[in-house]
Design brief:
CATH topology: Stationary-phase Survival Protein Sure Homolog, Chain: A
CATH superfamily: Survival protein SurE-like phosphatase/nucleotidase
Radius of gyration: 19 Å
Distance between the termini: 52 Å
Number of domains: 1
Oligomer: single chain
Number of strands: 13
Largest sheet: 9 strands, mixed
Shape: globular
Strand content: 25-35%
CATH architecture: 3-Layer(aba) Sandwich
């Protein structure tokens, strides 16, 4: 099994190293990842300057672009044969609820899906500062989960699986739950400050978060100590509205 690994935290990120350690026994591993932090780049492509992949070793590349760039270049130019699975992560921080719309980690998996390749995005649903210490203890659980997902008789068509790992040591993980996206509201996420010349600047990030959603939401699963697996697809059509739209639009 040929596996492509990528991420949005960069080629040197701890999460990518842990993912590689976990899945190396499962197949032929190829790593193509950004040369620097690319969090919250979503599904963006680099169109206005050329990309310069740098080979770091056998089956290992860094790219001066986005996670989406990395997967596209890997599949279309860098690998001799297309991968059979794309694995993205492990992100240093959660990707739940609306996070999936901003996440470079999820976007790398989405690019695999767009290219017709089954894909899984993995994130550590806890403090970035705790990720390095805890991820090392979760290697066996990550390996077992990925192995199981790869061996599904029928991997969900047109679907990527968004995995969030709870912020507990591996031996404390209670199991796996199939979940849906929760809802997240940020408060006070913009900080006003001044640059060295006294000019006002605004910094997006931080603040407080409030979650809501039913019992099978992703955030509830990780809060309870379970691995959350949420199926996502590229079709954003609200089908219930489409099917019920009889009174607000009449075709000419």
């Amino acid at each position: 099994m040929r596996l492509l690994l990528s991420n949005d935290d960069g080629i040197l990120a701890k999460g990518l190293s842990v993912l590689e350690q976990a899945v190396t026994p499962l197949g032929d591993i190829h790593v193509v990842a950004p040369d620097r932090e690319q969090s919250a780049t979503s599904h963006s492509l680099t169109l206005h300057h050329p990309l310069r992949p740098v080979r770091l070793g056998d089956k290992r590349w860094q790219v001066d672009g986005t996670p989406t760039d990395c997967v596209m270049l890997a599949c279309e130019a860098l690998l001799e044969k297309r991968p059979e699975f794309v694995l993205s992560g492990i992100n240093h921080g959660p990707n739940m609820g609306e996070d999936v719309l901003y996440s470079g980690t999820v976007a790398a998996a989405m690019e695999g899906l767009a290219l017709g390749i089954p894909a899984v995005a993995l994130s550590f649903a806890g403090s970035v500062l705790r990720a390095d210490a805890i991820l090392d203890t979760q290697v066996s659980q990550i390996r077992a989960l990925v192995s199981h997902l790869m061996q599904l008789k029928t991997f969900p068509p047109d679907t990527l699986l968004n995995v969030n790992l709870p912020a507990v040591p591996g031996h404390e993980i209670k199991g796996v739950r199939l979940t849906r996206l929760g809802r997240r509201v940020f408060s006070d996420s913009i900080t006003k400050m001044k640059d060295p010349w006294g000019r006002e600047i605004l910094w997006i990030g931080g603040g407080s978060v409030e979650w809501s959603g039913p019992e099978d939401s992703d955030f509830r699963a990780v809060h309870d100590g379970y691995i959350s697996v949420t199926p996502l697809h590229l079709d954003l059509t609200h089908r219930d509205i489409l099917d019920a739209a009889t009174d607000w639009w009449q075709a000419p």
